[in-house]
Amino acid sequence: MAESTSSAPFEESRFAALIYNPAVRGFFYQLLTVILVVGFVWWVADNTIRNLNAAGIASGFGFLDNRAGFDIAQTPIDYNNDMTYGRALIVGIINTIIVSIAGIITATIIGFIVGVGRLSSNWLVAKLSQVYVEVFRNIPPLLVIFFFYTGVLSLLPAARDSISLPLDFYLNNRGLAFPSPVFEAGSWLIGVALLVAIAAVVALSIWAHRRQMATGQQFPVFTTSVAIIILLPVIAYFIAGMPVSFDIPEKGRFNLTGGAVLGPEFMSLYLALSLYTAAFMAEIIRGGILGVPKGQTEAANALGLHPRKVTRLVVVPQAMRIIIPPMTSEYLSLTKNSSLAVAIGYADIVAVGKTVLNQTGQAVEVVIIWMIIYLTLSILTSIFMNWFNAKMALVER
């Protein structure tokens, strides 16, 4: 009896110590969170399956193998309405990737030009850049898309009155017509030469960097790389017997024939996303340049460097370390804003998925596909930009 009385306070103190142990409490709350999340997901999934069964809708992704039965206006890969829903969704995914990459490249170039223009000592250039930023930054992207689709491209002349542009390009209310390449036997050699040229440029860049670190001597990497990228495929083109020709569009009495066409839906979405996102990028670039200490510019000027070299070799490299992280967010926003294409009928993953959803009723599966696609694109973009940011970071000893 005496032993049980004396051990009770000891047991209570051990229990209290266990409760107030930070590691035990942390494990308990994490376990509780996992149980609640799993329970919530199970409840949602069970409720969804019950509702689908009650509505007579089969669940699962087996519908992807069924015949699609609808056409898509712009198909970068072979597709017709006898192919499957899965093939149609792949077409939508590729269209999303194409417009996103093209928009990111164009928005970066325009954003850099406008951002530097806002800091120009020329009053007119600075004010025009400011007006551009203020106009596009304060308009919803959907309105910009509608502006180009209904207010610009739809007002262009018909095909028989197409506007002639240099290099056999034509512009009309059906889009932009341009010469399309026709690949014949032996054209694979050009592709191999291009890959070899890219590998050679990478090797040259690494060698030039190591050489500069060791000796301080610079090598003209950019001009040499451009020459390699152009010359190697051209040499392969002639060695293979000129296996690539071009199908050039020709303007007839009533229509354009030949060539390839970028439809007004793609053009509207591409222009709107590029110009809209460039306004935000311009402010990021302006902020990055202003973030470089003024003493760096003054020191470079004191060394007698030309203003262009000061910008290219001193200001921009240091500004990039400030610019890259927020630019990543803008790239992700542009990719996600491409889903607005559904408003004008461009066949991106959302528009194609919506058609599939309406025909099959597989709402849950289609939404899951949308989420997986955009999540994958965002993660891949973030991984690449984080790698690039690490490459541009200062090396600390």
From TrEMBL:
InterPro entries xrefs: AA_ABC_transptr_permease_3TM, ArtM/GltK/GlnP/TcyL/YhdX-like, MetI-like, MetI-like_sf
Localization terms from the record: Cell inner membrane; Cell membrane
Membrane spanning stretches: 27-45, 88-117, 138-159, 188-207, 219-246, 266-285, 367-388
Topology in the lipid bilayer: Multi-pass membrane protein
Gene Ontology CC annotations of this record: ATP-binding cassette (ABC) transporter complex
GO molecular function, one term: transmembrane transporter activity
Annotated signal peptide: none
Keywords assigned: Amino-acid transport, Cell membrane, Membrane, Transmembrane, Transmembrane helix, Transport
A GO BP entry: amino acid transport
Record-annotated ABC transmembrane type-1 domain positions: 93-385
Membership in a protein family: Belongs to the binding-protein-dependent transport system permease family. HisMQ subfamily.
Protein name: Amino acid ABC transporter permease
Organism field: Martelella endophytica
